[in-house]
Design a protein that fits this description.
By secondary structure, this protein is α+β, with helices and mostly antiparallel strands. It has helices at residues 2-13, 15-26, 32-38, 42-61, 96-162, 168-202, 215-218, 220-223, 226-230, 234-256, 291-340, 347-356, 362-396, and strands at 69-77, 80-90, 209-213, 262-270, 273-281, 405-409. It has one domain (2-67, 98-243, 308-409): Outer membrane efflux proteins (OEP) (Up-down Bundle), CATH 1.20.1600.10. The strands form two sheets. It has a four-stranded antiparallel sheet with strand order 1-2-4-5, with no helix packed on it. A two-stranded antiparallel ribbon has the order 3-6. The longest helix is centred in the first third of the chain and has 67 residues, at 96-162.
Length: 412
């Protein structure tokens, strides 16, 4: 009979957690508050400033390759004074500027995608911290509740022991159970304080808020194949942009092997005579024709291409793994919901009643209490792991910035 009661109590106790998890399926969340908090974080601010710096560098690539040069010459030729004033301009004969403009396009993409990746990574970190906080908070409430139950039980046992209804062994068992609960309660409370400190560092204005995820907002990332999703990831797009930048860098290095002429125009006076001059100079690539620089740039382009394929392949399998994990958690969660459906929720009262009338011993009562707590904690952990799997999937598919979530105030 005891085993049946034990299994029944653990099963019915999990309903509370199952109901809280079901809110994931029904909520219509909004991530605006979270994003507003994340962009204030120093690490994200630093990434934003780096992006701006890279965008300025991209703008500089579109500027002219050569600036004009001003030249002057003063002197004497016999009794006559001479002076000339000229301007020289090197011609971008092979149109390196055109290749640099193409580089600028992909440099901007790379800068923006790198920032987007940092932003989404930080959002995932904050979300996981919020989920961990909620799970530990639930555990803290559960452990505290059982601690109070054991303290009340101990008082009852003391009275029944004095009256001879229970033996001294029952009191000792109650003492031991309560002492074990003190240690677990202290560990949970310490974890709760640490995660709250971490959230305070991540979210400047956080004040006991929680965020839940809505399945309706992310179901498409499960339905689509990994091949359809992988190319939208900022890390993949940034790697591809870097490949394109390297390709055009090799093109510029190839064009640099061709010398660019410099044309000069000057005007001045030689005594009383006006002087007008036109000059042309072409560098001779005799000692260095820059072929080695081209070979190096070409090899770097091939390395960037290989890196892009490596990043894409890694992200592809990460998406597949995350999709599989979420499907497994979802399947188990649905089975859990079906299993718990229609069960009685009054497990605690039932357990107390069975012990009071003597159907179960104090040892069985304490053991069942422990199983009940373990069952509830297992439910809390299942919810936590399920939500963490969702966040990892959203991060791997780069959907965190577009997914909506709901922020709700919770009691302090």
């Amino acid at each position: 009979m005891y085993k049946c009661i034990s299994r029944y109590l653990v099963a019915t106790s999990l309903i509370v957690v199952a109901i809280s998890v079901s809110a994931i399926e029904e909520s219509q969340p909004d991530f605006l508050w979270l994003k507003q908090q994340i962009v204030k974080h120093p690490q994200v601010l630093a990434a934003r400033q780096s992006m701006k710096a890279n965008l300025y560098q991209a703008d500089s690539l579109e500027k002219a390759t050569y600036n004009p040069e001003l030249s002057t010459d003063f002197g004497n030729e016999g009794p006559d004074r001479t002076y000339t004033l000229g301007i020289n301009q090197t011609i971008d004969w092979s149109n390196k500027r055109g290749s640099r403009k193409q580089q600028a396009v992909f440099a901007r993409i790379s800068a923006q995608k790198n920032y987007a990746f940092v932003l989404q990574t930080k959002m995932a970190e904050a979300l996981n911290a919020l989920i961990n906080w909620q799970a530990i908070k639930n555990q803290s409430q559960l452990v505290t509740q059982q601690e109070n139950q054991l303290e009340n039980l101990l008082e009852i046992v003391k009275k029944r022991t004095k009256s001879g209804d229970l033996g001294q062994l029952d009191a000792e068992l109650a003492y031991l159970s309560l002492s074990q609960r003190f240690g677990q309660s202290a560990r949970v409370q310490a974890q709760l304080r640490r995660i709250e400190a971490s959230l305070g560092e991540l979210l400047p204005d956080w004040n006991k808020r929680k965020i839940t995820l809505s399945q309706s907002q992310w179901s498409h990332v499960i339905d689509k194949t990994a091949e359809e999703l992988v190319d939208d990831h900022p890390a993949v797009q940034a790697a591809k942009a870097q490949w394109e930048i390297s390709v055009f860098a090799a093109e510029i290095a190839l064009k640099r092997k061709k010398p660019d002429p410099t044309i000069g125009l000057g005007a001045g006076k030689l005594g009383r005579d006006d002087v007008l001059s036109l000059s042309l100079s072409i560098p001779l690539y005799v000692r260095n024709n820059f072929s080695l620089l081209y070979k190096a740039a070409d090899q770097q382009a091939m390395a960037s291409e290989a890196n892009y394929h490596a990043v894409r392949r890694k992200q592809l399998f990460a998406i597949k793994a995350s999709q599989a994990a979420v499907k497994e958690y979802k399947r188990r969660f649905q089975k859990w919901q079906n299993l718990m459906q229609g069960r009685d929720k009054n497990s605690e009262n039932l357990l107390q009643k069975q012990w009071s009338i003597g159907d179960i011993s104090t040892t069985e009562y304490l053991l069942t209490l422990q199983q009940r707590t373990a069952g509830l904690i297992a439910g809390i952990e299942l919810e936590q792991e399920y939500q963490s799997a969702l966040i990892q999937l959203l991060l791997d598919t780069a959907q965190l910035d577009t997914t909506q979530a709901q922020t709700t105030e919770t009691m302090k």
